[in-house]
Amino acid sequence: MSAPKAVQRRDPKPRHVDPSTSEKPPRLVVIGASAGGVNALRTLVSGLPPAFPAALVIVLHIGSHESIMPAILSSSGRLKAAHATDGELLVPGKIHVAPPDHHLLIEGQRLRLSRGPKEHHTRPAIDPLFRSAAMTMGPAVVGVLLTGRLDDGTAGLQAIKAQGGIAVVQEPSDATEPSMPASALKYAQIDHCVPLASMADLLTRLVNTEVGPSALAAPEPAAHEHALSLSQGDPMEHLSAIASPSPFVCPDCKGGLWEIRDTQPHRYRCHTGHAYTLRTLYHAQGEETDGALWGALRALQEKELLLRALQVDQREGGDARAQRAENRMLVAQVRCSAVRTHLRASSSRRQAPVQEFGMFRGSVRRWGT
Ligand SMILES: [Zn+2]
User: Fold this and answer.
1) Given CB 3.0 to 4.6 Å as the disulfide criterion, which of 46, 53, 151, 155 pairs with 77?
2) So which residues are the catalytic ones?
3) Distances in whole angstroms, Cα of residue 23 to Cα of each of 37, 59, 204, 219
4) pLDDT tens digits for 218-229?
5) CA of 119 to the centre of ligand 1 (A)
6) What's the rounded Cα separation, in Å, for the pair 125 and 276?
7) In this model, does residue 353 exceed pLDDT 70?
8) Cα of 189 to ligand 1 centre, how many Å?
């Protein structure tokens, strides 16, 4: 899909690693995990050798909650882990962890922190890291997707493959939550699908392989999406280059969502930069519907209470309208009961939030509960 020239001129273009000018580009390992990710990451890093020759950059869905993941990972293996800081250089053998409430991006040989728009209703998200790594370091990137619900990371692995990188997923049957790696297997070209027990050895082998040539085709959708996530350029020009208006509304900002053309799974973006897949959008819409229903329940309960007081007042005053008020109060009671029943059924059906497990102030707990 080609973009208007005006957009092309303003867009940040991927910086390919050119083997002709680079003797041996260093490998970069980017890792994404969600539900079940704490234990999966501990297992993975425990098997990495102390002389691991590539930097590792990790996004775990932790939302805005305080995290002690670096301490946990440092104590789990022989590599040092720390929360990434803005502008920090990538260091071979170091584990750089996305801090709470920031996307973690790759820019050249440096890390960038961004409080840009959430993707999949979460920040940090996996896709922005993978996409920026693919655009910056091309075939040198090894993308790894571990356990997690829904499908953050699939589009990111597609971008990594489009630039000649290597895609690795945890074997879904080995994952606490198989959805994320299963989605990547379905929609992206995956080079290696292995259980956690084999992951450290595989990565150690991969980072010691020579980096292949850069992909010839620039990942134009990824470049437009990267610019949108960084609020660079004209958002409507970026969107019109890669997407078409959809009937859906962004759950984060209430702006119109555009469907990105020719993507599997179906993906959406608004002009402020929020991004969803069909599944994460459905999940976020479910939360919004619940919020609206709780608001309706509150209004109906208030109405019932007011009608109860009104009919008592009218009855004491001999007002003939008391019976009408009582009837309306009974109708409000029935409606309250119906909404409560729906909310109870909805909460029992609903899956856990996108942001699932994280280490918060020394304890593991479910986000959003
Ligand atoms: Zn939005």
Assistant:
1) 46
2) 34, 61, 152
3) 35, 29, 20, 24
4) 567 888 988 888
5) 9
6) 11
7) no
8) 29
Using alpha carbons only, give the angle 238, 151, 95 rounded to the nearest 5 degrees: 90
- Has residue 131 got a pLDDT over 90? yes
Q: Which amino acid is at 126?
A: I
Predicted confidence (pLDDT) per residue in 164-213, tens digit: 999 999 999 999 999 999 999 999 999 999 999 999 999 999 999 988 87
Can you say whether residue 273 is alpha, beta or left, with left for phi > 0 and alpha for psi between -120 and 50 degrees?
left
Residue type, position 171, single letter: E
Contact criterion met (CB below 8 Å) for 355 and 34: yes
The model's pTM? 0.80
DSSP code string of 52-70: --SEEEEEE--TTS---HH
Taking the centre of ligand 1 as the mean of its atom positions, its distance from the CA of residue 115, in whole angstroms, is 14
What CATH number labels 5-206? 3.40.50.180
pLDDT band at 297 (very low <50, low <70, confident <90, very high): confident
Distance (angstroms) between ligand 1 centre and the Cα of 267 equals 13
Q: Is residue 325 scored above 80 in pLDDT?
A: yes
Q: How far is the CA of 369 from the centre of ligand 1 (A)?
A: 24
Residues, CB-to-ion distance under 5 Å, ligand 1:
250, 252-253, 255, 270, 272, 274
Predicted local confidence at residue 231, as pLDDT:
81
What's the CA-to-centroid distance between 301 and ligand 1, angstroms?
32
Residues whose CB falls within 8 Å of the CB of residue 5, separated by 6 or more in sequence, listed in order: none
Which residue do the tokens 């959003």 mark?
Answer: 368
* b/e sequence 140-156, b meaning 16+ C-beta within 10 Å: bbbbbbbbbbbbbbbbb
Which residue is listed with tokens 């996530």? 229
3-state secondary structure at position 59: strand
19-31 per-position pLDDT tens digit: 344 455 689 999 9
CA distance linking residue 117 with residue 253, whole number of Å: 10
Distance 230 CA to ligand 1 centre (A): 14
Q: Are 354 and 120 in contact (CB under 8 A)?
A: yes
Tokens standing for residue 96: 């750089």
**pLDDT at position 55 over 80:** yes
Non-local (6+) Cβ contacts of 18 within 8 A are 214
